[in-house]
Amino acid sequence: MEMMKLAGKLLLCHMQFLCLALLFAASPSHSQPSDWPNKPVRLVVPYPPGGATDAAARYYAGRLSTVLNQQVIVDNRAGATGAIGTQYVATSPADGYTLILVTAENLSAIPLLYKSVRFDPVNDFVAIAKIVDVSIMAASSKFDSFSDLVAKAKAQPGTVSYATGGTGSVAHLTGELLQQKERIKLLHVPFKGSAPAVQSLIAKDVDMQIDSDLTFAPLVRANRTKALVVFSPKRLASLPDVPTAAEVGLGDFTVSTWFGIFAPAKTPQPIVRRLEAELKKIAEDGETKKYMDGVGLTPSFGSAEAVGKLVESANTRYSKIIRDNDIRLD
Length: 330
Hints:
Structural class: alpha/beta
Shape: globular
Low-confidence stretches: 6-32
Number of strands: 10
């Protein structure tokens, strides 16, 4: 009888051990997504089609589709200066099937611009990689030089207008910094994306537009507008005739941005590391440089760790601009 009781206890302990082992194996925090991806991956772009971020996203989505053996679909979820698409990704499942390509400035600025936005750019996302550097420029269809524009802005404060792709965008924040630097007052005219802002620029409805070199390069080459200045320390290979900030009297005034790919926080690290490795290969590939040179972008890889630090730095810089100028969108 005692032997039977002992055998029963051993059997019960064995069954309990098996149950615990199965429960542990099934736990999401310990599971290894060895079959990822087994369905299409969504790459959200929180801006309208046709801009610099959209061009970069479509190129990288195509390349990732090949190496992952699954389709990577670009999903443009524009609106509220990127808030709608970014909020969508922040609240999406952290399973590796929803990613976002976003600028550092928008990721940092959106929660400061909208009281209704409830995500944290540091804690609600995991950085995967920086993939592109972007130069910021100013162009005009009315003025022949940056000095002419500044002269009118000083003579008639608030009458010189500048268009951007939206309030809170890197272009808008650049305009605010520029006004502080030159001690001038400009009239900001925000649009829902770069494309409608360009149409206003070409039609001479606005005096100037601030945007990326990708936006202006084809227009400058076609003599449809004139690039006044690139806010960088050296001239661009794509537009070598455009003077730098220092050359137009702005000293060390430089503004640039970059595009990064992020995922919702708690996305499994094996997925993050694999994407990081694949994006590094793509960014450093000769075909990527050739393509990016053609559209006016600069491939530039940054690791997940480096991107995390860049986001924290952007938060510090742009939160000050937004607070100092009391920029709110709701």
